[in-house]
Amino acid sequence: MDGHRLKQRSQEPTRMEKVVVIVMAASGLCAVSSHAGRQYHFVYELKNWTEARSYCREKYTDLATIDNMEDMNTLNSMVDLSKMADIAHKHRAWIGLYDDVDSWRWSLSNRTFYTRRQAAFRKWHAKEPNNQHSGEHCTEMYWTGLWNDRKCEARLKAVCLDITGSAVTFVLVNKTMTWTEAQKHCRTNHTDLASVRNMEENEMVKQLVPAGQEVWIGLHRDSWQWLDGSHSSFRYWHDVEPNNRLSNETCVAADFSLSGQWEDWDCDFKREFVCYSVTGVRKQVLRVKLKLKKDSSQDLNDPAVMEDMLKQLRQRLKDQGVNPDDVKLSWRKQADGKVFHKEEKKTEKKTKKTEL
Predict the structure, then answer these.
(1) Domains of the chain, with CATH numbers?
(2) Exposed, middle or buried by CB within 10 Å (0-12, 13-18, 19+), for 146?
């Protein structure tokens, strides 16, 4: 039965927000809009996954997105195994599928319940989340109040959330369930699985966790996603894949010695890769002006930072009703190889009048 309840009286703590703010649609953002077909390109050069992504975006559209078995048959008919390097685990090529380990979101999706800062609150244990056993897509809270990623099939007690007006109540469910079962139970009998928006709420939930135990909370993540934002759900995994054998296998390669079946690999391995381009497209280059906070040391030309900004832009387009499969976004490098340059402030010389 449902047990102990705690009511919220907390105020949101101060926390640094993202340092990048999109000010206006304007350096090196390419928007490709099309419903047209996809053309694949094998590149027989050895690059890690990040390097392959950059190459494909510069020369074509992106690393390959694959929608169905027909696409796989096309790739199998195109590949020239004799051109692939004779290295360990040869005949494997990177594609555009990756495990987005940062795609955590709350079960309660009502956006009015969170500010951006609250939605981003996390209290992970050291070196977590790590997806250590592959498929750790759900979140448990330890009795210490720290969080860990865990397979959603594990059976734990859960903390639900009740919302009545502005009042928030947390409720311990004193029976073990999978994360999905816990979500269903909380949505049926309460509002949802617990969302934790700040340190005070984290302490409130912590007080409900029995000593030495763990409980489910509502944070979970989407797993494998396509680089270009495509919603294709097609998967062609090899047996026992993905297995995260090396504990950091978040990128995908197709093994063309086995009909292109997919495997998860550490992204730092050097492999050949497959790009795609879209025929009959309308391409538009927009200048983007970004504003940094005064104390920010953020490097806008850092590939990870640029990728995060693309994610934000894709989400904004989606929020405005644009189908993400219809528009492909990428950054365009300028002549010196950089995408962004700091805008110098213009100063006006002042002249002083003197009277004689």
Answers:
(1) 2-16+103-221 (no CATH), 22-99+226-331 (3.10.100.10)
(2) middle
